[in-house]
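Section 5.1 Outputs to date
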Amino acid sequence: MQSLQVKDYMNAHPVTFKADMAIEEASSLLINSGQLGGPVTDEQGVLVGFLSESDILAKMLETGYYSEHVSSVDQLMRTDVLTMKPYTSIVELAQTMLQAKPKVYPVVGDDGSLLGTISRNNVLKAIDCSIKQSFHVTTKTG
């Protein structure tokens, strides 16, 4: 299982946001994507932050209450983002996920460019698939 890498299980086409995007637009993108959150990138595709459902929820409630646009992505995004490299081991990431609480991690290249995202669900699928393959091989040869 150590040979499983993030790049093999990541979402290479995540929903992404721009810092100057209105939060209402970001909310619509997130809803339509079915994802839990997404990276915020600059014009060169370099990660500058992360915006999640929970980041948007409170602000959208406020927006609905006051019936006016109240913020943009750069006012809500987190800039202290935990990221993964594409060559990170799935096992290492799973151990990190047990300690840190983000459900989705941006995957970035060594130059900081966004390559995709990986979620707890992606990691669970990778481990599940590996265990099933291992069990299948063991039972066939055993």
